Amino acid sequence: MGGDSTLSGVVGDAATLVSGGDPVSYWFDVCEDDGSGLCGIDFSDFDPSALPSLDHTDEEGLLGEIDRILDSINGDQLPSSLMPLSPPVEPASNVPVAAELVVQQCLSVENSCGGDGAKDRREVVKLEDKDGSAWNGGRKYNSTKEKVCDRRDERGANRRDRYRESSAWRRPRRPDEAGDWRRRDGEWGRKRERDGGGEWRERDSRGGYWERDKSGKVIFRVGSWESGANREAKKTKLDNAEQVRRSPEKRPQEKREKPTEEQARQYQLDVLEQAKMRNTIAFLETGAGKTLIAVMLIQSVCTEMLKENRKILAVFLVPKVPLVYQQAEVIRERTGYKVGHYCGETGQDFWDARRWQREFESKQVLVMTAQILLNILRHSILKMESINLLILDECHHAVKKHPYSLVMSEFYHTTSKDNRPAVFGMTASPVNLKGVSSQEDCAIKIRNLETKLDSIVCTVKDRRELEKHVPMPLEIVVQYDKAAVLWSLHEKIKQMEVEVEQTAHSSSRKSKWQFMGARDAGSKDELRLVYGVSERTESDGAANLIQKLRAINYALGELGQWCAYKVAVSFLTVLQNDERANYQLDVKFQESYLKKVVALLQCQLSEGAANGNGVKDADMHLSDAQKADEIEEGELPNSHAVSGGEHVDVIIGAAVADGKVTPKVQALIKILLKYQHTEDFHAIIFVERVVAALVLPKVFAELPSLSFIKCASLIGHNNNQEMRTSQMQDTIAQFRDGRITLLVATSVAEEGLDIRQCNVVIRFDLAKTVLAYIQSRGRARKPGSDYILMIERGNLSHETFLRNARNSEETLRKEAIERTDLSHLKDIQRLSSADTLSGSVYQVQSTGAIVSLNSAVGLVHFYCSQLPSDRYSILRPEFIIQRHERPGGLTEYSCKLQLPCNAPFQQLEGPLCCSIRIAQQAVCLAACKKLHEMGAFTDMLLPDKGSGEEGEKAEQVDEGDPLPGTARHREFYPEGVATILRGEWILSGKEGCNNSEDELYMYAVKCDDIGTTKDPFLTQVSNFAILFGSELDAEVLSMMMDLFVARTMITKASLVFQGTIKFVETQLAALKSFHVRLMSIVLDVDVDPSTTPWDPAKAYLFVPLIAEKYHNPLEGIDWCLVEKIVETNSWNNPLQRARPDVYLGTNERTLGGDRREYGFGKLRHGMAFGHKVHPTYGIRGAIAQFDVVKASGLLPSRDSIEPTDVYHSKEKLQLADSCIDVQDLVGRIVTAAHSGKRFYVDSVRYEMNAENSFPRKEGYLGPLEYSSYADYYRQKYGVDLRHKKQPLIRGRGVSYCKNLLSPRFEHSEEVENEENLDKTYYVYLPPELCLIHPLPGALVRGAQRLPSIMRRIESMLLAVQLKDMIRYPVPAMRILEALTAASCQETFCYERAELLGDAYLKWVVSIFLFLKYPQKHEGQLTRMRQQMVSNMVLYQYALNKGLQSYIQADRFAPSRWAAPGVLPVFDEDSKETEYSIFDEECPATETEPQKDFYADDCIENMREDGEVESDSSCYRVLSSKTLADVVEALIGVYYVEGGENAANHLMRWIGIQVDLDPKDFPCPKPYNIPESIMRSVDFEAIEGALNVKFKDRGLLVEAITHASRPSSGVSCYQRLEFVGDAVLDHLITKHLFFTYTNLPPGRLTDLRAAAVNNENFARVAVKHKLHAYLRHGSSALEAQIRDFVKDIQDELSKEGFNYFGLGDCKAPKVLGDIVESIAGAIFLDNERDAFIVWKVFQPLLHPMVTPETLPMHPVRELQERCQQQAEGLEYKATRTGNIATVEVFIDGVQIGIAQNPQKKMAQKLAARNALVVLKEKEENAMTKDMDNGEKKNGVQIFTRQTLNDICLRRQWPMPQYHCVNEGGPAHAKRFVYAVRVNTSDRGWTDECIGEPMPSVKKAKDSAATLLLELLNRCYPDNR
Questions:
Q1: Which of 1005, 1090, 1086, 1076 is nearest to 1459 (CA)?
Q2: CB half-sphere exposure, 428, CA atoms < 13 A
Q3: Which residue blocks in 785-899 are alpha helix, DSSP H?
């Protein structure tokens, strides 16, 4: 069938559809259901030209033609028009295979009818032909599937509706199918456009847009724009929905499921009734529905408890891990309860009590393995009393020391009867043994189980109902001949086993340790040291190899040489692909032996058969190589070996004769061949050993005649080649839906697993117990199934077992119903009473946690597995057993326990016991007790990981919520105001506030200009003083502030004390009024002095000073100016007050703050203090016509003024409301009456008047819009000028009030050249539209500096206040530095100090913990340190001390700053586009993009990262990481200014209790190291290399001892490494901090990272040969160090090479660790003197990294480069064998690739390669640009400009841009813009949507580039 065309399948489907019932109506229904095609049939790859012509004129039309096609197929003929499509095929096999899809669906509908369907299918077969095909009504079938479909023909009419409902018919087309015709259509359309420049409008009707796809191609998409991520998500969602609709299991059931109880069979309800009344064991066959009874029991108990208003906690125990998932899913689906599932592989062994408690509270049913329940009961995490219902699945396991048995004996039976849970057990046989010898024996065994479970066995008395629902299979016994023994081969393999064992035992202990090999990080899982499980070490080379050799030997005897050969090849392939193969000696050792075995067994099956019929050896090699890892994964693929040749029996027959395959395997193959034509064949073969389960599927795959089988293995968890649960689930799912038809399984499939009803079960190896016999038979559940038992001919034990099993089953059933009387056996031992807790126990009184002899060994193993270790050390306990002979022939044993070297104690001697096992348990029990007393175990008897509070806190935070202490965790905090600023005097004038007697302190603001400027306005500023109610600290007066007023000039500002003043009330009132008028204009907030609220928390006033010298401060105030400004009537005119734009209804501000900074405050000041919302809030509108101003009466009536063309006087000008002298006008501020904007008057231009022609914009080539200035005002504003001959005023816009504290000119994009520096932007105004503003220009310019000055003074006052609280003399300026975040963008920030503080804090805390807890290992110390210095903890300390009020975290924005009496107002329109205050005004003489008013002030006031939606006036947002950073910065600052004493003082103040008083700590015990070890260490050489003498050499021995070294009373270096790491980090950070004082914080961090890292230290170790003295016991580590040393020597041989840890070879971590541990040893040996450590280490670390030699990590460099360029960066990693490959993709295109055994190193090399490629590309692009002359004056021309030029040339309107998406976090915003142009000849273009970009400009450029490409296609002349 392989060659048949797709069409035959399609038409075959159709045939099946239409052949029954009324074809026409059904066909229509199908087409309606699926509008996108013919009933889900995919025609996408089908050539339409091949279809028959369908333009018949008869009435039948389309349907008639389709009927004809179908008839011709049913008649085994294709219509002539379809003939060429496929070669002629055999009619017999054509239709069924083609119609496979439909047939499977018929089957599924048939099956859904229930059991009867199966019988119907059997009835179909009427006659058997010789070759096994069936006949029915004279028509021959070769396929069972075809039979079923014909059955459908008979019932077609009455089933048609049912088919229509089946979701399989309704499946929608996949997006790729559905879109295919559309896509093709689109391509034709685009071709048309390309060729003929098709109409825009034509495509516009479809609605769409252009964009680039991932490959960079420009494509048209229909519909509206969606971001790529959304599109992908939608596609995934559709695909998922599609899969759900298609998957056979999830097809919706036609009838609504009945409630559980209604579905239950009668016998199930009978058992349920008994279970409700008392504890019950349900004894029912496999498949009888025991789980359903358990589910109904849970529901029943839950209902009862709900009535009492209590929550149920039911525990459902299962014996095997796969059952956990299966049963949990069943209970969830049936009940809808909250069900938790737990087993070792999901990590619950490591949960603490709180985590479990949350599970108990949130779940109703817990499904778990018995071991998990036993553990949590033993650790007293759960009490037996808390459980309401205990269900034991497969409860026959409750014998001996099985966890079931221990749960019952240790906890159930020891709980008082009233508090015990109800118990329900389920089993297919209550006896799990070889069988029962008599009825009495049977009764005893049942009674024992009942006693153990405190339950009564219950079974079905009337078996007829049971047999109706659980059909019994036909039992068939197949005998096979005994295999010939291949003695020579067996002996050779056995000889190898002996050799391997001898190699292991003959070596000394040390070499044995090496021989075992290292534990890889990955094998931690395989180790399964989850306690209570096993002591097996997966990577013990010898043991592993012996297991493999035994497996091969077993396969040789049971399956034959060919199978054994395949097993050996598989083992070898897996080993060669192992990642560890490169450097682990045990792997090499195994490989050498396996190669010998493969050579020994090599054979092929072609011998004895006709040539070429067998499977060639080379092919076998290939298949094994391909399936290398399948052996490891335990899952083999469905392989179909399809080859010609004779019948397989010939091959197998010859192979059997040759001994290549055993008769047993031949018999199995013959059995399978019998089922070749069986309908819906599903079989399970049960084997005893994993090796058979893995190799048989491979055998079947290579035999041609078994190609009808799709085979896989199913093996359990406790094997070397274990299967993960997910793989098991997947295999079972494939078996259910028919993708696999044969499973070769070990005992894992015998019990409980829900596997599709099979029709054949074969026991390849006989069962070991009666239970296994019953359970495996129960897998054959289909009516008429076969249960085949294979037994060896003449093997008596096989026959005996079979007879015994059948008898036992009958006896058990009989006993369960009739119950033998056992009263006479009361005293006999065999009838055991319930075991109470056996032997000795240790119980913690406070919690009730318990460890007994049974659990002690497991607990000690678990403890060792939790100790800190690396890949080279296997930490496990060792036991040395001693035998003691006693008089009288009595033998006793004692056990000595040896713990790993990083445990609190290493050795413990146990008591004398009667057996080895009990001796081992007793010493472990004593060890558990001692470990608990020493604090290594918690009171729950779990290993102490260091106090666990922090981890628990972290877990309690809801998922998705950022954790406290992280940058994403942000909260609102009130802004702090220094208490010294508080003053009730500011309230004077209010009723009851007569504070005129208060003395006020006057401070003049002194400004000195540094540098020069050509802008005269910058130097023409008024002087101010500030009045405070209290005297300021001297440090505030000594502070100099840098104000960045212009690019070439900085103003140094400071405060000078002028004296104290007493004001009378009227004077104070006038000053307050002046202050409000001035600041309302400067900050652009419209407030009135008479109504504005005053807050006494912030009391100061700005007052103007006279220019002359004065003696008395009162005289220095410019009272004339104050009076003039306060009393003028101009303030009555809304245009002269702040925010005239609100009055005029325009959307433009006048001055006083960047609009983009408005509207961030969700907590507005007014609302926070209960004031009314400001009336100006959020009012916006269109640009006003002049009529608004005229109508308002704000200007004198212009109609009374006679229009005049004559200009009379040069001295006076006619303004809007007055006449003024020209000399009085220059330097003043005027308000434009038509727009409300303000300007400084620069000069009066006598040579220009309103009749002058209106200038063009530079570069504008289009027609003139306005003929003259007068014409401009008439058209734009509706103003007819009356004095057209008056000269024009030249003005400059009044700028916003700026943040002058940030160095704004350093990073300007403008090119610094003279031309740019001198640019000033002017506007020309007709005088008659101008109003004189009451505030002088110089006064406003001076006042615009005051917010920045006051911000710094307020911050400084807070720093002084904090200093006074801490009470340690440190300069307040330094404290201010520690309180200022980098996001403020000022000249200082806390980051440098934070780096130093972080290292100092870590150092102090590490020493404190090391000395205070001498028993705790490095893992516990690290976690405890983390809890003392983590950001989360420091954040809490900062909150406790109220530091949030002192921190400066936002860039200063004057518009959001609150001056006394002038509170900020916030607008909603914060997201509007860039804008300038004189936009749309008369054009400037130089029409560059409009800039602010300073000649050289060309910076955009963009919002910074720190300025999150917050409101300076009362609240702001701080991330909790900022608070933590400030604590570290304060420590750093205090350390710099006052040394360790100051830093420790601050730490105590903040709450970090670390007292390093030597008296508080016990003297460290002198090291008692065996003499033999001291002799083995070359102290002279090490001390020579380090240039230091040790007082206590024991410290040095510990510092060089690795954990892989067997413990001989010497601890390993881990604790010393913990201290040394902190000491070196502190010393190196301190050195860098004080050496590079001017280095920016980011660079300093990079320097520290390059100097303090393991790679760098490892290179130091090798350079000074310290690695040679390392004491370890791992051959793998030895090999890795050797390779690394060789690589380093190559590295160092390169001239000038120093990568500072960024070299191309990765160091073993151990080498860096010993450098740190030696530092720790020197530190402790010299009475904790860090100076001596630095003296030793400075020369060792030479040459130290410097800013010049600092390399940047390629991964980071590439990331930063991509962020700047707004490119998408992605890494893809794959692993083949032991080589990792990493590819680098930028914007979806692969740029770099590298390979290395280590993934991280591969990533680094790939990033480096990518950078090389990118740099080459950039250089090429630069060269090309220079050649094309693309650059002008060093500035690249932007794409938008090119687009604008095209529009001007063609006289089109300017392009229209709009933002289609804006998103991403604040630090990585992305903008997407769209653009289109209205062309004069073709109308609007399609929208072109650019790439996501980091700025608006780049986003617009990206869109413009796309549009240019399209325009160039349609208008080639553009180019």
A1: 1076
A2: 20
A3: 796-818, 853-865
pLDDT digits (tens, 9 = 90+) for 1690-1740: 777 766 555 565 666 788 999 999 999 999 999 999 989 999 999 999 999
**In whole angstroms, what is the distance from residue 1655 CA to residue 1702 CA?**
8
DSSP 1368-1396: S---HHHHHHHHB-GGG-SS--SHHHHHH
Residue 392 backbone phi and psi in degrees, to 5: -115, 110
Whether the pLDDT of residue 1437 is over 70: the answer is yes
Alpha-carbon Rg for the chain, nearest whole angstrom, is: 45
CB 1401 within 8 A of CB 1528: yes
Report helix, strand or coil for 1415: coil
- DSSP state, residue 1506: T
DSSP 8-state code for residue 1327: G
**Of all residues in the chain, what percent carry a pLDDT higher than 70?**
69
Closest CA relative to residue 1234, chosen from 1337, 1331, 1155: 1331
User: 584 Cβ partners below 8 Å, 6+ apart?
Assistant: 517, 518, 520, 539, 1675, 1676, 1679
What mean pLDDT comes out for the span 995-1004? 82
Q: How far is CA 695 from CA 600, 656, 709, 1238, in A?
A: 18, 17, 15, 91
Residues in the chain: 1919
With 80 as the cut, is the pLDDT of residue 919 above it?
yes
Torsion of CA 192, 195, 197, 200, to 10 degrees: 20
Torsion of CA 1335, 1341, 1342, 1348, to 10 degrees: 120
Omega cis (within 30) before 1743: yes
Integer Cα distance of 1237 and 760 in angstroms: 93
Q: What are phi and psi of 1774, to 5 degrees?
A: -135, 160
Tokens of 304: 């009862």
Report the relative pairing of strands 314-318 and 389-393 from DSSP bridges: parallel
Q: 1307 in helix, strand or coil?
A: coil
Spatial separation of the C-alpha atoms in residues 1665 and 1582, rounded to whole Å: 9
* Among 580, 71, 626, residue whose Cα is nearest residue 1674: 580
Beta strand 365-369 with 139-141 is: unpaired
Three-state DSSP state, 935: coil
What is the C-alpha separation between 1398 and 1532, in angstroms, rounded? Answer: 7
Distance CA 3, CA 1865 (A): 56
Q: With contact defined as beta carbons under 8 Å apart, do 1242 and 1291 qualify?
A: yes
Hey, how many other C-beta atoms are within 10 angstroms of the C-beta on 249?
9
Taking the alpha carbons at both ends of the chain, their separation in whole angstroms is: 58
Sequence-distant (6+) residues with CB within 8 A of 1568 are: 1594, 1609
Dihedral of alpha carbons 1174, 1180, 1183, 1184, sign: negative
Of 400, 428, 330, 1029, nearest to 776 by C-alpha is: 428
Q: Which amino acid is at 1192?
A: S
Residues sharing a CB contact under 8 Å with residue 572, sequence separation 6 or more, in sequence order: 591, 594, 595, 598
CA distance 1688 to 1510: 54
Give the three-state DSSP class for 1615. Answer: helix
- Regarding pTM above 0.85, the answer is no
**428, 432, 588, 1774 from 1778: Cα distances, Å:** 47, 45, 14, 11
Question: Is residue 995 a contact partner of residue 987, using CB atoms and an 8 Å limit?
Answer: yes
Q: Which residues contact 933 (CB under 8 A, 6 or more apart)?
A: none
Confidence of residue 1491 (pLDDT cuts 50, 70, 90): very low
Closest Cα to residue 1319, out of 1495, 1483, 1133? 1495
